Amino acid sequence: MDRIAKEGGGLSKLSWWKTICLMCVFCAVGAIALPAQTFKTLVSFNGSDGSFPSAAVVQGSDGNFYGTTAGGGDTACSSPFSSGCGTVFKMTAGGKLTTLYSFGGADGEYPSAVLLQATNGNFYGTTWIGVGKCAPYGCGTVFEVTPGGTLTTLHGFDTTDGANPRAGLVQAIDGNLYGSTAPAGAGYGTVFKITPRGKLTTLYSFCHETGCTDGKDPEAELVQDTDGNFYGTTWGGGANCAPYGCGTVFKVTPGGTLTTLHRFNSTDGANPGGRWFKPATGPSTGQRSRAGPTAPLTGVARSSRSLPGVRWPRCTASTGLTAPSLSGRWCKLPTETSTGQPRLAGPTTVAPSSRSPQRAH
Length: 361
What we know:
Blueprint: H1 2-33, E1 58-59, E2 65-69, E3 87-91, E4 97-102, E5 116-117, E6 123-127, E7 141-145, E8 151-156, E9 170-171, E10 177-181, E11 190-194, E12 200-205, E13 223-224, E14 230-234, E15 248-252, E16 258-263, E17 285-286, E18 297-298
């Protein structure tokens, strides 16, 4: 009995030590599995290389990150909001920053929207002010910039075709770029189409209906759904929230026919102003602000078909689930960036230019 008791005690001690060891292993595995909670500042702008970045960066087909600063850059340009009129920059994942272009006023000022890399490899964006006859600061522009830093002003707004675009652009199935402008002068914002060569067409002018029930002041980027139509929001207008309105959700066809899908009334949110985004599966979502519940909008999103010339494979078990496919699911390709954008053939190398060639409108 004593022997059994002693052996039993030994077994108990052995089990106890095993438990301790297992706990140590689990703690070690847990520590390894946790991502490093380290914050690292990659770039601190100093004015000469830009200031006040107001939009997200995008990852280019070369793996680098591209973005804009609303101010800084060329100090010879007198911006009403900062020293310098803004820049376009490239940054490596390690934080090495290169100023690709500094705006000078005659080519636009205050680029505050996210850039878009089109299928030709170049980037497209908007400046909020500069150029045009919108006193005192100008009406804003649409521009193209190569990865090498050569900028071309595609269009300067003049109030008759809209003014002061706040949102970035989207490239559609047809290869053209679509965007919106803010209220200016007697107008309340527009939806427009512009070709990569700079020919602009106004598709719709807001506040066309009495009382602006169709909305006014579109602030966020459009998205294109698989049906070919564009979806977006207006910050104001609608039928509620006097005096400015609670905002709307709308659909507009490539031909310019607009349908108001929803008018906010403050109980369901108000004044939408955030970007729409597409999750891996399901419909798109947008963010609401200033009033109402915090739950996201439910809508529809642009599909991978909006990338003309890009052929995505069918999803299989071996491809994973990280990038868009024509089937609507998400597949992984070795030729894609980490953001799910296709890695396109790089453009011809072009020498940087400190000023853009102005394109005739």
